[in-house]
Design goal:
Elements (H helix, E strand, L loop, with lengths): L7 E7 L6 H9 L6 E8 L5 H11 L3 E6 L4 H11 L4 E4 L5 E2 L3 H11 L4 E11 L5 E6 L8 H6 L10 E3 H7 L5 H4 L6 H10 L3 E13 L9 H18 L5 H21 L3 H14 L7 H23 L3 H9 L10 H8 L7 H10 L9
Parallel strand pairs: 1-2, 1-4, 2-3, 6-9
Antiparallel strand pairs: 4-8, 5-9, 6-7, 6-8
Helix pairs in contact: 8-9, 9-10, 10-11, 11-12
Length: 369
Amino acid sequence: MNPRLPLVSVIIPAYNTENFIGITLKSVLSQTYKNIEVLVVDDGSQDRTSDIVKSIAQSDCRVILLQQSNVGVAAARNLAIKKSRGEYIAPIDSDDIWYPQKLEKQVQLMLQAEPSVGLIYAWSVHLNEEGLLTGGYSASRLEGEIYTDLVYTNFLGNASVPLIHRICLEKVGYYNCQLKEQNAQGCEDTDIYLRIAEHYQFRVVPEFLIGYRKTFNSMSCDATSMAKSHHLVLVDSQQRHPEIPSNIYQWSKNRLYIYLASQSKWCGNHWSTLFWLYKALQINPTNLLHTGLYKMSIKSLLKLIAQPVTSLLWSDHRSWLQFKQSFRSNNQIITIADISRKMNKPKQLSWWNIFYKIKHRKVGLFSIN
């Protein structure tokens, strides 16, 4: 180990993730960048999460287990940061994975960057509960001073993406615990990215280095909490930055409602899908021109009509997805190369997306699928 390489503190909040925490830790401990410490905070789990972490810690001294009562993901991350020693902080959720060179490439870019850079991000692919690629991804090429872009959309994609210089957190503060106190978990990562972006520039490693696992128990499936969390973060931003045009905040809400509709559809909640599509339509009537949203609403209506019959065949939406997955043959398995080709194809943009890009002369902003 090169002692001149900075220590990276990997922080992992964990709550009832016995099915994934071992896989997550394996991906972290397999990083080509070796000068790391790994702080796992068991946030009051009632399953075998802590036992699995203890077992791994016995064979790798870089792993440290911390335990607390169930007070939320923000408090868990904050505890890990307070106990950490690294010059850089790298969060990862306990069901996500990193590909081997994630930290190495981010640290290399951070070391080459000017002092004004405080956060390095990379691209993510989406995984299902079995760890297979779904075809979804988050990828952007935005760099520099990107505060307004972050208001428009969290283009980083998820909480397992960034490498953060510790001095940023000492300046702007840690993760916001007040969101949980207001029953508004879900946008803690967006909130801290915005606060960092007020003072520091961002850089990107334009490669797929993170696997973001979408599970039925994740906070992203709690649309109501996510919407409230997003609203509170936007209100705070608007109070701090009244110079940002109000229509950007409206566009941000529109994107969120479309995202929540998509998440609700994936979770099998078709009433919720239609509700969030309606909310998006109230803000932006041109959504009617987006064929993808039109198809989503029709499919949700048809599935609601068919639900009395389909419920006799599959007990829940998870059972239906497992049945559907069983018909996928080996030659249909999605690869990262497939996603890269998909990313480079022309994308259908809403009128508001087009207007935003023209007005702000932005290129390379990809939607979160």
